[in-house]
Amino acid sequence: MKTRVLVKHRIFNLHMGNPHNESEEVGQVITEVKNKTKRPSLYKVILLNDDFTPMDFVISILKKFFHKSEAESARIMMEVHSQGAGIAGIYPFELAETKVYQVNEYSRAQRYPLKCIMELEE
Ligand code: TYC
Questions:
Q1: How far apart are the C-alpha atoms of 108 and 115, rounded to whole Å?
Q2: 99 vs 24, 29, 31, 44, CA distance in Å?
Q3: Does 10 reside within a domain?
Q4: 48-61 pLDDT, tens digit each
Q5: pLDDT by residue (tens digit) across 12-54?
Q6: What pLDDT score was predicted for residue 18?
Q7: Total domain count, the chain
Q8: What CATH number has the domain bearing residue 103?
Q9: Is residue 36 part of a domain?
Q10: Nearest to residue 114, comparing CAs of 44, 70, 49, 64?
Q11: Domain carrying residue 72
């Protein structure tokens, strides 16, 4: 729901230094507070092609870290293989960062040059 939030400010003139310290209201101003809840930016997690990482290993990565089915994993892997890059998933910043780190570390540990990057989704 979109709600307009208005704030009413009362402006006083303070009479200081006299015995009663009285003050008089000299005006009012109403301001509107921004009520936009910004959706977090999303990031594409992208796999890059190389000549050495086995196809089955890429498929296993898509299943393990991106929870894709066997068929969807094979489709994405072939897209990366033929186009040079392909989207494994789309996530908020921190989750995308984690996926990129996990995939790169896992591949490095297995001595494969597979690279995973992230890119702001426009
Ligand atoms: N090009 C690799 C091969 O022919 C397969 C591959 C696919 C590698 C996707 C990386 O991200 C990748 N074995």
A1: 9
A2: 61, 50, 43, 11
A3: no
A4: 999 999 999 999 99
A5: 988 777 667 788 899 999 999 887 888 889 999 999 999 999 9
A6: 67
A7: 1
A8: 3.30.1390.10
A9: no
A10: 49
A11: 42-120
* Centroid of ligand 1 to alpha carbon of 102 (angstroms): 18
The arithmetic mean of pLDDT across residues 82-92, rounded, is 98
Average pLDDT over residues 108-113: 98
What is d(CA 27, CA 37) in angstroms, rounded to the nearest whole number? 31
Would you place residue 81 in the very low, low, confident or very high pLDDT band (cuts 50, 70, 90)?
very high
Centre of ligand 1 from the C-alpha of residue 59, in Å: 9
Residue of 47, 48, 58, 108 to test ligand 1 pocket, by largest number of atoms within 8 Å of CB: 58
Alpha carbon of 30 to ligand 1 centroid (Å):
61
22: in domain: no
SS3 (DSSP) at 55 = helix
